[in-house]
Design goal:
Cofactor: Mg(2+)
InterPro entries: ATP-NAD_kinase_N, Diacylglycerol/lipid_kinase, Diacylglycerol_kinase_cat_dom, Lipid_Phosphate_FormReg, NAD/diacylglycerol_kinase_sf, YegS/DAGK_C
Strand content: 25-35%
Order of helices and strands: EHEHEHEHHEEEHHHEEEHEEEEEH
Keywords: ATP-binding, Kinase, Lipid biosynthesis, Lipid metabolism, Magnesium, Metal-binding, Nucleotide-binding, Phospholipid biosynthesis, Phospholipid metabolism, Transferase
Distance between the termini: 22 Å
CATH architecture of the largest domain: Sandwich
Protein name: YegS/Rv2252/BmrU family lipid kinase
Oligomer: single chain
Shape: globular
Helix content: 25-40%
Number of domains: 2
CATH topology of the largest domain: Tumour Suppressor Smad4
Largest sheet: 11 strands, antiparallel
GO molecular function: kinase activity
Length: 318
Amino acid sequence: MKTKIIYNPKSGKRSLQPLMSYVIEQLSEGGCRNVEVYPTRAAGDATEAARDAHLNGCDLVIAVGGDGTVSEVVNGLASFGRPVTNTAKRPILGYIPSGTSNDFASALSIPTDVRKAVRIITKGHRANIDIGSINGQRSFNYIVAAGAFTRLTYTTPHHLKRVLGVWAYLKDIFREIPLIQKPFRLQLSIDGQQISGEYVIALVINSPNFAGMRKVIPHACMDDGIFDILLLPKSNPKVLWSAVRSMAMGVNESTTESGILHLRGKKISIEAEKRLDWNIDGEHGGRNPIKIECQEKYLQMMVPAMAMHKVLSHQDHS
C-alpha cells in the first residue's frame, strides 16, 4: 500500500518527530511498504502534498497535525476547483491528531495518543464521511463559523497555542465579548427556505463537537448528507449567556428556550450586509458570501469502532 504521511512539525504542544520512526514501523507491519514522510513548511503545503499524493496513486494519506492540517489535506484530496483526472482513485485518509483542540478527531473518537491513532489506521474501520464544498472551490471537514469568539482559533498566536494549548485562547476571549452586542444581518437560503435576521454567531456544522465543547449537537451524524446550522440572534447578555450554556450542554430542539435557532440542510447560501470573517475548520476562510453544499459520504477514512456507532450511523458497519 503506497502511503504518504503529511506532517505539520509546528502543530500542538509536543514534537512528534521522535515518534515518526515508530509510526513508519507500525505502518510497515500493517502492510504499508512504501511510506513517504512530507513535513509542511507553510500554509497550503498540506493541500498541495495531498493533491500530489492523489495524482501519484497513493493508497493511503495520513495527516499528522491539528484541525487546520487535516482540513488542508482533505482539500487536496477533494480538489474542488482543481479536478483530478476521473481515473485517479482517491486515497483513504488516516489521521494522527496533534493540534490544540482536535475537534475533528474528537468527533470521530480518534485519540491523541500516537500509538492508539496508528493502530486505528492499520486495524480500524473504513468509513465514508461527509465533507462540505464552499463555493465549489474548497472543502471543509466540520465547521464554518462567523461572529463572536469564532476568530480565536486563527488570531491567537501559534507560539502561545504550542506552549499553553487551549488555555492560549483565554488571553483573547475578553476582547471578543463586546462582539455579542454587535450583531450582523444575514440572508440565508437553506434548501430553498429563506431566512433573514440579526445574529451574533452563525455556525454550519458537520460534527457533534466544536470549539472544544463536546456533544453540542448530541445526535449529529457525519455521514447523513445533512449539516446542522446554529444561529444565535441578537439579545441581552443574560439571554446570550443562557444560549452559550445551552450549547455547552447540548442543543436538541428546533428552537431552544435560550433562543438558539437550530436548522438542518444540505445546500446553504449565506450573504451578509457587511463584510464578515469566516472561520473554516479553525482557519481564516475569507469574507465573501458563501454557498455550502454537503458532499455525502465523499471521503473514505480510517476510524475506530466507536465512531461507527456514535457519529457514523448511516452506513453498513460490517
